[in-house]
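Running log. JK asked me to keep both predictions on one page so they can be read side by side. First protein, sequence followed by its C-alpha cells:
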Amino acid sequence: MSSTSVLPPPLTPPTELDSSLRTRGYAVLSAQQVGALAQVHATHLQAFGGLWEDLPPDGFLKDGGRYRRRRHSCFVVGTDGLVQQAAHRPHWQPLEYNALHGGMQRHFEPMAQSMATHPDWLALLQWLGRVATHLRGAQTWYAEAHQFRIDTTDGIGRPTPEGAHRDGVDLVAVFLLARQGIKGGETRVFDAEGPNGQRFTLDEPWSVLLLDDARVIHESTPIQPLQAGGYRDTLVVTLRAGGFQGE
C-alpha cells in the first residue's frame, strides 16, 4: 500500500463516539476500533477487499470520466437489529444534495451475495444502525451501500466529482479499504453552518469516517498516480430514516 498521508486522521476514542457525532458532527475510528465496536475481527473485514477487483464501470459520470467503478445494494436495519437485504433498486439523490448527478435514476450492479449475506457484513450494518439510533433515536434504518474504486485511468480520479456535499441522509460511513500507488485523496469535513473544518488522509484499511449528514458537508480531493494503475477503494454506507431516497 502506497500513501502520501500528510495529516493523519484525528482518531476518536470509542467512548466518545456518540458525543463527537453530536457535538462536532463527525468521528474517525481505526480498523481495530471498528472491529471491536461491530464485534467483527478486522482481518475478517479485510477478506472482503478482493471483491473490489470486480466492480463494473460507473456509466453515469457527467464529466465523461472513466475513473470510477462501483456496485450498490440496499438493506433495512430494523429496530430489533435484524438486517434484511432490500429489493435491488436504482440509486437516486435530489439535485439539492447532488447538483451534478442528482435527479436521475442511476442503475448499478448489486454487491456480490457472498458479501451481502455474510454474517460479518450484517454485523457491521447492525453496528451502524446502533450508531444512527444513538444519534437520532430508535427507528428503522434504510441503508445504501456503495463499493467504489477510483482509479487514475484518466490521469486524475475524482472521489467526489460533485464537490463538497451532503447526502440527504442521517448517517454517512466512509470506510477506506485501500490506497495503491496514488497521492491525494484527502478527506475534508466542514461545518455546514459555519467556517470550521478538518482535513486529513485516511489510509488504514477499514478505518472509517462517520458523519452526521445534517451537521457537516464533506468531500475527498482528487487522486493522481504515483505509479501505473494507482487507485483508491472505499465503501460508503448511508443510513436514512423514513425510507430510501426517491420512494
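And the second, directly underneath as requested:
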Amino acid sequence: MKKIFLILSLFGLVQIELVSAQKNYPAMLNKYMQAQVNANDFSGAVLVAYKGNIIYKKGFGYADREWKLINTTDTKFQICSLTKQFTAAAILQLAEQRRLNLYDKLSAYFPGYPKGDSITLHMLLNHTSGIADYTGLPGFNAIRTQSLSKDSVIGLFKNQPYRFSPGTKWDYSNSNYFLLGYIIEKVTKQPYDVYLYKNVIQKAGLRNTAVNETDSVLANRAMGYTKAETGGWKNAEQFPTGLVYSAGSVISTITDLYNWQKALAGGKIVSPDMLAKMTTPYLKNYGYGLTIDTLEHHRRIWHGGAAPGFTSYLCSFPAEEISIVILSNNFSNSNLIGDALASILFDRPVQLPYKIVERPINTAVLKRYPGKYQLSQSSGTMYFELINENEKLYLKPEGAGDFKMELKPESETRFFFARDHDQEIEFVVDAKGGILKCALISKGARFEIKKRI
C-alpha cells in the first residue's frame, strides 16, 4: 500500500494555465487551491509563507462531515510521518547531552537484536539500517486496528529478513523510527509523549501539537475520510496511537508546523551542529527525518506523510525564505499540491486542476505509445514502461514487479491514471502519429518525459 502510494505520488496532472506574469501571489495561490477543491474535493488546511511573512492561510472542506464542521486554520490534523522529524530532534537533543551517541549500536538498547551490533542510531535515523518496514509486512493489515504493546510491534519485524546489509543502501522503514522512540524512553526513563512534549514541543512554543490519543476528547480535531467504493465518503480507519508511535502519532495545525520549522531552523531545539547533521542529505537525499533535495533548482528541506484519511506536507526553501504546510483529512495528494504552490512562487507556468472525463477513442492509436520512458526530476529519475494490452494503455514502473496502472483516454493524445483522475500524461504527435514530445503535468507543473531508445 505504501509503495503504491509513493509510485502514484510521482505522477499528477492538471490543466488550464494560470498567468504567472501576475505577481499577486496570494490570489494565485487561492485560485489554485480553489480549483483543487472544485476538481478534486481537497479537504484540509494550507499555509504559505514568503520572505518571513504568512501570505496565505486557509481551511477547506469539512473537519467533521456528519456535523458539517468546517476545517479552519486552527483545525488539528494527524501529521503522519512528519512525526519523524520530532523524533529525530529528540534523539539529537540526547546526543548533545551525551546521554547517547549517534553511533551507538542498536544492541546497546536491544540486547540480542539480530545484527544489532551492525546497526547504529545514525542508520535508524536515515533509513539505512535494512530493517523491514512493519507497515509493509503481509500480516500488518490483519492487526492494523489493534492496540499492541511496543514489544509486540517490534516482534512483528525483529526477526524478518533484512532488506540489505546495514549501512549499504537506503529503504524507508517506519520500524527505524519505532525503535528510536523506544530508545528515547529507555534513555530518559519517560514515556515518549511526555519527553517529546516537555523537551521538544514546549521548547518550540507549539500550543496545538501533541501525540494524538485517539480515545481522548480533543477540541478542533479533524476526522479522516476516504472515498467509498460506491461514491461519496466514508470514515477512514484509525491506527491506534501505539501502533504508529514515534513514527507517525503526532497531531498538529498548519500554524504550529510553520512555527516548528522556524524554531528548528532558529536553533531553539538543537544546536547548529546537530541541525547540520539532521539536514545533511545522506543516501537517497535523506537526512534525519527530513528529505533534502531541490525543486526547480531551489534547495528544499521537506517531508510528507500519509495514514488512512490523512496526508501531510511540510517544506521549506531556506534561501528563498519560503515555507509551505499542507494538511489534508481526505487523503489528498499533499506532496504534489505543495510542488505546484512552490512553482507559483517560482514564477513557473502552473495549470489549474479540472474534472477529467474518459472519452472513447480509436484504440488503434494506442500502438503509438508502447516503449520505455524516463522522467527526470530533482529528486531522481523514474523509469517506466508503457504497455498496450487488450486495447488498453498501462504504465508499469520499473522495479515494481507485476504492478501496473491503467491509463484511460481523455483524448487520443492525453491519458489519465484510472486510480487517480487528476493525473495525466500528454503526447504531442506529428501528422503520421510519431511521438514528438511527451510530458507529465504534475499538479500544475509540466515535466518532460523522454522515451528511451
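Observation for JK regarding the second prediction: The longest strand covers residues 298-307.
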